[in-house]
Design brief:
homodimer; 465 residues; Uridine Diphospho-n-acetylenolpyruvylglucosamine Reductase, domain 2; Uridine Diphospho-n-acetylenolpyruvylglucosamine Reductase, domain 3; Vanillyl-alcohol Oxidase, Chain A, domain 3; 7-stranded antiparallel β-sheet; 5-stranded antiparallel β-sheet; 16 helices; 18 strands; globular
């Protein structure tokens, strides 16, 4: 029996063993395997050998222990909404689907924190918190799982005021590569007690362990919330107004750019009739007087940059409609050319370079001839140009890959990063060395080997370059 | 020649080699060695074999490379103000004194960030920033070096609004255990590109590498700043008022408790005449209207808890005097019993448990008979009881060690940590396993071995338990 055959037979034995433990919560159904072999990106499907649906930390530990015995890859799976091929089973293995670990374990109103299982989604948590006066602030477009958001160091539209998952995760429960259940962090707001394992696992994309529980900071709903859209003559003006807003220290909760191409797509998809101009979506949180003051300060700034057509949404229902339209932008883009795939870029630069970075990128896009509208969390210096591509059109894909590479190099040269919030997966591996340098890559790889010596935790991702 | 003699001879050869490279910037003068063998705590002096004063990243790399060749310990040294024996040379070795690396390398006003060498002190940086409209927010009591603050994950009085070093370090330059110079992080405000090496080195107390440069977030000075002290009938009332202030979401910049024992010591030391009652020191930052609103909200809360005797300080000079008195509390305590040593505790708990934790601790102190006044960053749930002890009085020290242990266990049982901001060093090693559990300790130790396989980087600290 050769090595490959031996491995195959080991893996079959493992699956039999898991089936005997998990019964119907272990599946090898082709459609389920396929569904677990991709996120929402263009990366080709790479299916696992089986999918397991645990209900507890202990069950996850059991799966990982058995996988470790047969050196089988373990891929944690949440809602399957990642954008860089994070869940692709590049060497097969067992996909651990955490969606049935969806209990909200505790909410501590007085401390404004909570503990949830990894499969809880952000909307589920916020529905649960309804009427508590508290909310969970991180909101990537999709209704993602909290575990997946921690693993990818997600952020979204509120990060400019409330921070990303880096700032909002207080602690984790993690199953390590040898099947141990460990806890990181405490419920104290700060600590100087040893290495910051919490921040190490946040953003590690399942390559160092499986996150099974997350302790989160929550934030108090403010007395007043006011949302608006406002139009600008061009993207540079909108970006410049954003930069000045941040530099003035206005504690704006959301400040999002949507270019005219995306506004047109949104109107078509969401049946809205917003002006099809370069637009900022805004939200102000605070006391009544505080919000009024912020609005006045922003208004003065925006006038300097030629703003027009403020449309306000103060009622919760109106605000929800406005932000739903913003969050559906990706799907609106997909609907412009039915059947096309989205290839989302995600650079983030120091805010002083944002206007240059966006306008140079837009000129580059125009030259390329691709449909690639721009949207972004401009308060953080982070924006996405999504290239919509015809499947199988290799020339188009080649053009997109080149355009992406130039965008990333431009951002890195400006002191920025190849990814503000989507992570590395397999899609951005090629940019890691240029961003971090050889020495830092050696350190990351040493950490990977130390915590996962058999390379079974989501292999082929993040540091495999 | 036996092993010890061989090591000694190796070390002498190393020192000769360093002297040939660094000349007078390498010293073995007894008084300098002694001075580099301790911080500001009660832990006994453990002097290094030599002290070296590099001027550049490359010089630090040279020292570390030579130390690695002879398996000699390397201890990074800033201002020598650590409180848990972080700089003690437990196995001798080379102390790298970074105070001559004190250049402010760049300030990017538009991005509100800067890059400094590790030896720059916080006051030096803020003096440099004077008139720029920006400030660096972290302020432990002493005039510490930025490198030391990063290494210890320091915080101070402003952390409740502006965060700790965890949130304010954007990136680092680090010399690793093999003498490589690596950079972590970018100048972008957020990134999802791989493992968060920045957060791993922040708080690692020199055990994973020597921090030589720090890229920091700065904050904008607000239009209005208003400081005050206010008295409460007891510590519980002051703590309860603080808790409610945080829970109401008032963006208070500083909220510090000082008990009546400390107030008396401060008056004597700083020649002030504050009421000798349990007191909160406060500071509000914002627009003029915003500060007025915060003050009004705080005033209403504080009345509920029996506050009296507000004394306001709005002018910069008056505020400085007020905060200088607060920051000098430790030295004021030392002056009560001349010749005594301070033994500072540093627990941090979820804010809902703060009033219980402080009052139970005070009862415990009263029973012990020790002089151990309480001061704290109550907005973060962090407080210090400093036990002032007679050198050589073993019975008193034994009592202090037991009291400390009970304080830590109490905080840990409340979901808190043994150290909010002072770090582990050698003093808190004994609390690590109880706080993190065996599994997390295994992970931390694996990281230590991965990044420092010879155990030359500040050995005996943080994870050596």
């Amino acid at each position: 029996m050769n090595q490959a055959a031996a491995n195959l037979s080991d893996r079959e034995a493992l699956i039999d063993q898991l089936r005997s433990l998990f019964g119907e919560r272990l599946t090898t159904s082709k459609s389920v395997l396929e569904q677990h072999g991709h996120g929402e990106s263009w990366h080709p499907v790479q299916a696992p050998d089986a999918v397991c649906f645990p209900h507890s930390n202990e069950e996850v530990a059991t799966i990982v222990k058995l996988c470790a015995e047969s050196t089988t890859p373990v891929i944690a799976f949440g809602t399957g909404t990642s954008l860089e091929g994070q869940v692709q089973a590049v060497n097969g293995g067992i996909s651990i689907d955490l969606t049935q670990m969806n209990q909200i374990l505790e909410v501590n109103n007085e401390d404004m924190d909570c503990r949830v299982q990894a499969g809880v989604t952000r909307r589920q948590l916020n529905q649960y918190l309804h009427d508590s006066g508290l909310f969970f602030s991180i909101d990537p477009g999709a209704n993602t799982s909290i575990g997946g958001m921690a693993a990818t160091r997600a952020s979204g539209t509120n990060a400019v005021r409330y921070g990303t998952m880096r700032e909002n995760v207080l602690g984790l429960t993690v199953v390590t590569a040898n099947g141990e259940i460990i806890k990181t962090g405490t419920r104290a707001r700060k600590s100087a007690a040893g290495y910051d394992l919490t921040r190490l696992f946040v953003g590690s994309e399942g390559t160092l362990g499986v996150i099974t529980e997350v302790c989160l900071r929550l934030h108090g709903l403010t007395e007043a919330i006011s949302a608006a859209i406002v139009n600008f003559p061009d993207v540079r003006s909108a970006a410049e107004a954003s930069i000045q807003t941040i530099q003035m220290g206005i504690p704006i909760a959301r400040i999002e750019i949507v270019d005219r191409a995306y506004m047109k797509a949104i109107n078509a998809y969401s049946k809205t009739d917003y002006p099809e101009l370069d637009t900022l979506f805004l939200e102000f949180h605070g006391t009544c007087a505080g919000v009024a003051e912020q609005v006045q300060m922003f208004d003065e700034i925006s006038q300097e940059f030629g703003a027009s057509g403020f449309q306000w949404a103060d009622k919760e229902e109106d605000r929800r409609q406005l932000w739903r339209a913003r969050h559906d932008a990706y799907y609106a883009g997909l609907a412009v050319y039915p059947g096309y795939q989205g290839y989302v870029t995600d650079v983030c630069v120091p805010i002083s370079r944002l206007a240059d970075c966006i306008t140079e990128t837009q000129a580059d896009i125009a030259t390329s001839g691709l449909f690639a509208p721009v949207i972004g969390h401009v308060g953080d210096g982070n924006f996405h140009s999504t290239m919509f591509l015809e499947p199988g059109n290799e020339a188009m894909f080649a053009k997109a890959l080149e355009l992406d590479k130039r965008m990333v190099r431009r951002a890195q040269q400006m002191g920025g990063t190849c990814t503000g919030e989507h992570g590395i997966g397999i899609g951005k591996l090629k940019h890691m060395r240029n961003e971090h340098g050889d020495g830092a890559m050696v350190a990351m790889q040493a950490i990977k080997v130390a915590l996962d010596p058999q390379n079974i935790m989501n292999p082929g991702k993040v540091v495999d370059c």
